[in-house]
């Protein structure tokens, strides 16, 4: 199989390297030519995107976002129509769906996906991918996709679903690390080293992971029984965290934002479970839509 990789950032370069190591016939292209030249001794280097797409059985896009992917495919639409495109560029569900529909309307064979692991473990057993699209396209691409990410999950035909998972998971990941940084800063403001507080922070993150499924269950059923604590007490706790941050000269923006969410959810429901914060998430969207 002839495979093209378009976009040679960390992920694209790792994918290209893995496929070359697996003995695949690979063509690479990158908008900044210098990155592609590093592959010149092991792969074909295309002069432009159209050349990379032309003649390829499978073309993998790993670029900044779906606007960049759209630009590439639009500029090389004739060549793109002859290859099976796997777009692994991260973006929003809305842009993923829009690009898939644009590609479909132009007769392109197209799959939408995301990588859920760092570029350093591409091809290893723990490498994870989510992918969606037509069954026939999935069947044709799967041998290559499973090589890149042995833990590959097919989400059906809805092209927005990989990005839906991706944005939800990345939101949790980066918000958690921001909260970790805030906790570290608050501890250091009182003379507690980051390495000292770290095991305690890890324990709190693990506890949150245990409680999280209960939040999900309550959110699905929109029922919030207070079995162990109340959202009213959570509001008080977060007000204390916010005040302590300000007293210590630590940035309080994250603590204030979380406090506002719990305060909003607790209105007239202060004796419900803290999981009622889920309602604040939905209420925000409903209020925005009603404006």
TrEMBL record:
Q: Where is this region: Disordered?
A: 272-291
Task: For this UniProt record, give its keywords in alphabetical order, as a comma-separated list.
Answer: Oxidoreductase
Q: Where is the signal peptide?
A: none
- Give all residue intervals belonging to the NADPH-dependent reductive aminase-like C-terminal domain: 160-281
Which GO-annotated molecular functions does the record name? NADP binding; oxidoreductase activity
- Pfam families given for it? NAD_binding_2, RedAm-like_C
InterPro entries per the UniProt record, alphabetical: 6PGD_dom2, 6PGDH_NADP-bd, HIBADH-related, HIBADH-related_NP60_sf, NAD(P)-bd_dom_sf, RedAm-like_C
List, for all copies, the residue spans of the domain called 6-phosphogluconate dehydrogenase NADP-binding.
2-156
Q: Which family does it belong to?
A: Belongs to the HIBADH-related family.
According to UniProt, the name of this protein is: NAD(P)-dependent oxidoreductase
Recorded source organism is Microbacterium foliorum
Lineage, please?
A: Bacteria, Bacillati, Actinomycetota, Actinomycetes, Micrococcales
